[in-house]
Amino acid sequence: MGYTFTLSEIIPAPPAAIYDAWVNSRAHSAMTGSKATQSPRVGANVSAWDGYISGKNLELVPGKRIVQSWRTTKFTDADTDSKIAITLRPVAGGTRLILRHSNVPTGQTSYEGGGWQANYFTPMQAYFTKAAARLARKYAGTKKPTAKAKAGRAKGQATRAKTVSRAKALKRAKASGRKPAKSRSPSPRRTRRPARRR
Predict the structure, then answer these.
(1) Domains in the chain, CATH or no CATH each
(2) Kind of pairing, strands 53-61 and 94-104?
(3) What's the whole-model pTM score?
């Protein structure tokens, strides 16, 4: 009978970036510093750390949750696969990664006692910190725009439309040989001076 433990860590990246890196072979390899074979398909076989870890995708919810069967070369033939369930929640400064590792063979406590920290969390923090600027550009659209941002965007679009319209009018006037009409600004209101008393 195996045992279960839960770990939690803040990773400096959006949930979507962490999810995408985890299920991509090249990014997972770069993220951990060791060769991995991953897939974004449920049912696909996966591996990590040069084959030390092997398993299968059991459940995938893009940007939110990853569930994989998980066994290492230390598991015996009598040991059934363990299971990892990763939940990704956005927080200030990045993502709270919650890892639930279940059915771990009794006696193999190194995963909970520093294995995940040394082989995943610490390398992931370094990887995503280094890639922060690139990821910010790539995942900028994952947050819902605020009302203020929407209003600013609409105002910018109206200004651009007015500029384009003015440019087209100038182009047409130039093509026809006419002088373009100047935009008139309203003249200041004149105030009548009171009549002098004689």
Answers:
(1) 3-138 (3.30.530.20)
(2) unpaired
(3) 0.68
